[in-house]
Amino acid sequence: METAYNLIGAGLIVIGGGIGLGQIGGKAMEAIARQPEAAGKIQTAMIIIGALLEGLAFGALLLGKN
Amino acid sequence: MIFTAFATAQAQEHNGDYAFDDEIESDGGKVNTKEEIDSYIDHHLKDSHDFHLFSYSDDAGVRKHVGFSLPVIVWSSEGLKFFMSSKFHHDDDGKVLVNDGDATFTKLHSKIYELDKGAAAIKFDADHHPTNAHRVFDMSITKSVFGLLFIGLLMLLVFGALAKQYRTKKIPTGFGRVLEPLVLYVRDEIARPNIGETKYRKYMGYLLTVFFLIWISNLLGLTPFGFNITGQIAVTVCLALFTFIIVQFSGNKDYWMHIFWMPGVPVLMKIALIPIELIGLLTKPFSLLVRLFANITAGHVVVMGLIALMITLKAQFGIVGSTGLSIFLTLFLSVIELLVAFLQAFIFTMLSALFIGMAVAEHDHHEHAGADEDDVDEVRERFI
C-alpha cells in the first residue's frame, strides 16, 4: 500500500513540475516574441527558474522514494 | 588520447588475469531477465572498485570479463592495507575472501568488508546484512576517484597551458582557442552579471573549476567506461558544500542582516523570519546537490533502460528489430544527455554565482567608489 501512495505522490510531483515548467516556458516564449532583443536575458532567467523548480521536484521525488 | 592508450594498455594487461579466474562466476554475469537488468542498472549507478567494460562467453562456454582493476586501499584493524581489486575476481556477493596479513576482506555490493577474527566465510542475517563482518575505512582509488583524478590532471595540464600562453601573447594558439571562449563565457554570462562588476574576479577560480569539473565528468559519464561521477551523491554533496562555505565566508554585513534582522518589517516579523531564513540558507546547497545528482542519475537510468530494450523486446521484435530500436533511442537520448551535461554544469555554476552575488550584494551604500573600481579596471585591462 505504501508503494502505491509513493507512486501517486511521485505522479503528483511530476504533474506539478510539468505545470510549472510549462508556465515558465510559455511565458518566456511570449516575452521573447514581444521583445526579441532581450531573448538572451529572458532565456537565462528562464533556465534559472526552471532549474530551481526542477531541484524542488527532484528533491520531493527523492524524499518520496523512501 | 593518453587516457585511451592507458586504458587499453591496462585492459590488455589484466585480460589474462581475469580470463583464468572465472570458474568462480556462477551465473556467468549474464543479463537476461528483468531482475538481472534492474540489478545491473543499480550496480552501474554505484561506484565500483574496478572498470568493467564488457563480458562474453568463449567457445568453451567460459565467461570472460574485459576491464581493468583499480587499487584497493583500506584502513582495517590491522592497519593500512593495499592490494589490487582483481583479487576479488569480480565477486560482489562476499564469496571471495582476500587475505592480507592477518586481515581478511571481502566485497559485498561494491563495499569492502573486513571479516571478524576467526571467521572463515561471511554470514548473513535475515535482512541480508553481514553478521560477522564490518565495514572498513575505504580510501580506494575507485572508478569515481580515478575519474576525478583524471579530470584534475587534465584540467591542470590544459588550463595551465592556456594560462601560460597569456604571458607571451595576447591571443592563445592551438587548443587554447577552443578553451578561451568557454572561459570568457563563464566570466561574461555567469560571473559578471550575477556577482557584479567589482567583485566577480575573486570567485572566477572557483566558478571555472566547478564548471569544467562538472561538465567534463558529465561527459565522461557518456563514454562506455561507465563513469558515474556526478551521479555519486558524495561528489555533489562535496561540491555543494564548497559553494555553501564560500557563500557564508563572503557574506557581508547586509547578508547577515537580512537573515537575522530583516530590515523594513515589524519586530515580531523579524523574529518570525529568522528560522525561515535559516532554512533558506540550507535549502540552497541542498537543492544544488540534489539537482545535479538526480539529473545525472535519471539520465543514466534512462540510457541503460533503453539499452536493455534490446533484451526485453527481443521476443516481440526479433533480435535485429529490438537492437535497432534500442540503438536509435539510445542515440537520441545520448544527444539529449550531451545537452544535459552542459546544462547541469551551467546551472550549478550559475546558481553558485547567484548565491555568492546575493551574499556580496551592496544595498544602497555606495561605499565602494573611485580608487577601488579603478584598480579593478586596470587589472582587467591587463588581463584582456
From TrEMBL, chain A:
Report whether Transport shows up as a keyword of the record.
Answer: yes
Membrane-topology descriptor: Multi-pass membrane protein
Predominant location of this chain?
membrane
MF annotations from Gene Ontology: hydrolase activity; lipid binding; proton-transporting ATP synthase activity, rotational mechanism
The V-ATPase proteolipid subunit C-like domain covers which part of the protein?
8-62
Query: Pfam families this protein is in?
Result: ATP-synt_C
Sites marked Reversibly protonated during proton transport:
54
- Segments crossing the lipid bilayer: 6-24, 45-64
Q: Which InterPro entries match?
A: ATP_synth_csu_bac/chlpt, ATP_synth_F0_csu, ATP_synth_F0_csu_DDCD_BS, ATP_synth_F0_csu_sf, ATPase_proteolipid_c-like_dom, F/V-ATP_Csub_sf
Q: Name one GO cellular component term.
A: plasma membrane
Instruction: Please describe what this protein does.
Output: Key component of the F(0) channel; it plays a direct role in translocation across the membrane. A homomeric c-ring of between 10-14 subunits forms the central stalk rotor element with the F(1) delta and epsilon subunits.
Indicate the family of this protein: Belongs to the ATPase C chain family.
Q: Which UniProt keywords apply?
A: ATP synthesis, Cell membrane, CF(0), Hydrogen ion transport, Hydrolase, Ion transport, Lipid-binding, Membrane, Transmembrane, Transmembrane helix, Transport
Lineage in the entry?
Answer: Bacteria, Pseudomonadati, Bacteroidota, Flavobacteriia, Flavobacteriales
Protein name as annotated: ATP synthase subunit c
Q: Where in the cell is it found?
A: Cell membrane; Membrane
